[in-house]
Amino acid sequence: MYKFHFNSEIQRWSWLPTPTRTDYVTVSVTFPKDGLAQFKLDVPSGTTSITLDAKYDGKDSVQATKTITETKSKTNNFIQLLLLTNQLQAGSLATFKMSSTVPNQVIDYQIWSRGSMVVSGSVTVNSQSSFSVQMLPIMAPSARIVAYYVTSGSNPELVADSLNFNVEGAFDKNQVQVSYSKSKAAPGESVDVEVTAASGSLVGLLAVDQSVLLLAGGNDITQDDVLSELRSYDTTTQSTSYPQFRFFWYPYSVSGTDTSSILSNSGLVALTNTLVYKHVDPIIRPPIWNMAMARGGFGGVRPGIAVPEMAIASVADSIGPVAPAPNSASSSLLRKWLYERFFQKVGCGQT
């Protein structure tokens, strides 16, 4: 069972905390044999974040939570990458789906793995388009595709999206096989060892008495150790502590709420004279601040601040008559009077 929380902001006075309205939607899903369920969900307009609570009530109760936040763009243009192919294997084709808010847009893409770019290309997207890329052994065990384009106009903006995915077959390019001339041998007998690998390979052999393994283990070089080493070459730090489940091939988006954070979390830097948007929440001051500045409080008039006359009048009426301009000796008393009188009036009780 999936329970969704849709959080949307409700616009109020800009100087008060912005409240949110939460809508709840519950979806029950029956899983197929592969353990992967897909379903569609209509997201209400104005939604700023979605929280997914997944819960399975079986013999062993399992619960997980994931939150998705709204992506920001200065020009309100976006692209989205999706992977349509399951169980990626080196040598096979991976099909990606790309969506764009701008039709007939040429979008460039790059695939990175082990800290290097291994594939690049471009595709023309008409709202939604699909394209395929052949998976290479160098893309295993994990890779990342980054798509981007620059908007047209006098103020161009870089629009980007990124997607991580796993590829099996890190050892397909060089299959190493070992065989022995005898399955059993007595002490002093010779045993021929035959190693098969790609030409020019450096192969290491280690022979250990089985009785030694009874004393201590865990010192052998395993495939998991090699895969962890290959993941460490990535342009970003990835956790390698996750369980190696059979279905862990499922792709996952690079976190980020704007182009700047998406590229940064992908381990990339954009050298461009276009806008690489980085969203910053504006700092909004309460009306009492602007009123005091506009009317000569706090040390004089502050030029450049526009305050609605109705807002000044309503606040001024609630405070009472404004005292004449004080001299320098009483300026501190006026600041204290304005704050205490105003906050007592509105019931805040603090400054």
From TrEMBL:
Residues covered by the Alpha-2-macroglobulin bait region domain: 79-215
InterPro entries the UniProt entry points to: A2M/Complement_sys, A2M_N_BRD
Keyword annotations: Signal, Thioester bond
Organism expressing this protein natively: Bugula neritina
The keyword Signal appears for this protein: yes
Pfam families in alphabetical order: A2M_BRD (PF07703)
Protein name: Alpha-2-macroglobulin bait region domain-containing protein
Membrane among keywords: no
PANTHER family per record: CD109 ANTIGEN (PTHR11412:SF136), MACROGLOBULIN / COMPLEMENT (PTHR11412)
